[in-house]
Amino acid sequence: MKLTRHGFGIILLGAMLSMSALASWSQSTGKPPASPSKSTQQTKAGGAVPSGMKLVTQMPASTAAKPYLFPKAVTRTLSNGLRVFVVSDSRQPLVAARLVLMSAGSRNDPVGKPGIANLAADLLTQGTATRSAQQIAEAIDFVGGSLNAGAGKDDTRLSVRVVKKDFNLGMDLLSDILLHPAFKKEEVDRRRQQALSGLQVQYSDPGYIAGAMLSRLLYGQNPYGYPGNGTPDSLRAIERDDLVHFRDDRYTPDQALLAFAGDISPDAAFAAAEKYLGAAVWPKREVAAQRSPASPPVQGLRVILVDKPDATQTQIRVGRPGIPRNNPDYIPLLVTNRIFGGGFNSRLSTEVRQKKGLTYGAYSSFASYQQAGDFSASTFTRTEATVEATKLVVDLIGKMSTGALDPKELDFARDYLAGVFPIQSETAENVASSILNVVQFDLPADYNDVYQQRILAVDPAQVKEIAGRYFDSNNLVLVLVGNVKAFGEALHKDFPQAKFEELPFDQVDLLTPDLRKPKVASVAATPESLERGKALITAAAEAAGGARLAKIESVEFHGKGEFITPQGTFPVETSVIVAFPDHIRAELTLPMAAIKTGFDGKSSWLQSPQGAMDLPPALNAENLRTIALTAGWGLFQQALEGKSEVKFIGEEEVESQKLLAAEWTSPAGPVKLYFDPATRMLVGARFRQTGLQGPAEVLDLWSDFKAVEGAQFPYKHTTYRDGAKSGGVTASSVQLNTKPDPTVFNKPK
Q1: pTM of the predicted structure, to 2 decimals
Q2: Across 396-482, where does the E strand assignment appear?
Q3: Which residues pair with 558 in a beta bridge?
Q4: Which of 191, 210, 360, 403 has the highest local Cβ count within 10 Å?
């Protein structure tokens, strides 16, 4: 982030990078821990393994699962359609209630706006008509309870857990956040900005992109394939009215399930359900069932390569369509996948991690939802081992499809899954969830009662039949994110029958059909718009200093300000040197780190407490845009020399100011420029920034202009990212033509 008119861009991204660099260093090497040798094996306490003893990879022996009787539920349906289930257990004075809204999952998000279900659920605990977010938190914390809300693919879930004496308070809070969420604009903006900050980190993570792309490719236009937390563009488009409409349309009792578990009698539970969530407070309103379109079939091998030239390791995802949750094959498939990749001692982990040493981890899963599902295998490896690891994963899937297995594998998988079931049913919350799953996913009524027996009954013949049907290595989708130039050619040779596609990492768009960002449509140029744009930029250059601007070779300024994040506001000190037209060095001092970044005209770099590093070449254009927009002087110099043109757009309202807008095509893409209609000063710019943590819309506003040797410099800089204020700096000193040593722009050794 650079602290110039570009905003907090690269320097603050660097600050985040420096704080996580040490923790992620080992993964960045792409190398797994070395396998112990005979001479170096050590015990857990750090001593040497005794002579004659050898540590080997071995599946632990299985043990028979203890029978477990799942508790019975008493059920009743209220007049508004809400179905209520109660499991009484007085061993502890605790009561848990879980509410499932079956028509409010992310698959119910409006077309083109993924993220609404998640954001709406996230905001439920952030204020109601009568309680603030702080009051809600204090009320539940005071009694030592918990109150949560969140959305998944199929539903939105609310839960509360309290001791028995505080049950009425817990239900009052649950009812309040469900029926009276305020969705205050300031809370919407705050939580959206937090979500956007998280997405910026995710969009810089090759692992996240690989998984999200595989999901989109497997599901196509089926909403299960879209990211439930949305995308940066979709979140920015969500308004408060969208959340209110979703809540009013999708939070309905006839499509809801409520379970109580713990120290409560059925009569008391039904009475509480009627009081807090009955027809008197939550009227019946039917919602039409929403059927998702079918997922596209996978035919042959389809390989998507996402090129990230600076990557030192490759994220590998392999998948194909799966099954919905109520498919009769679910339990035998669960056992079969436990053998293949569902745990540390699975085939996938043993072969790829332990035997070959290609990764830290490899696993597989079958995600099963109400109407669809998918299979995915996941791992990562160092760049030079990409082809070997990818081929090994595909070969293991093919080997699994034969159904051949060691009896010990099946015994371990069955005993583990059956044995862990009682542990997964220990808490009242888990019991409530399991009860509701049976109803929501239309499972047999005795599903929980006979779960262990059905797991233990899976035999080799079933595994063989299931493996042959669901582990077809000839029809797969593969997504690889990494330095494609280093492994792409070899991968083509190893998979000659596959259909390959390739796209740059910074061009991924999870909403478009082809997963590529659409080309940004620029303002159409007309002779009139170009003429008015030329007049506007000429007037702005004259107001900023006129002929004096041509004599400015460099500018150096220092300042103090603040950096605003969802975690808090931090003070910053800045020092920036710009040498026109193509050199910059910036230093940012935060409480947690000091960051330096620069551009020497050919390459960009960043220095953090962990050392200096080269930045992706794509950021060079970002630097050139920053330099040109520093006080606007670089842009004015180009315009006066006829090296750039500006197209007039018209009047726009920007942060309550009516300004004149024009468009300039910078080296990094279109930039909307804003001019004060009275003074003609350039007072702001809006552009799309692609930094280390993904794309964001940046708005920089400049004010408090003061003359510096005859040129107007804005002493106050304010930056907005994705619609929310992210920081500001006030200059304390500005110097021109200081003749900086050219080496200050070079990457530190």
Answers
A1: 0.70
A2: 476-482
A3: 575, 733
A4: 210
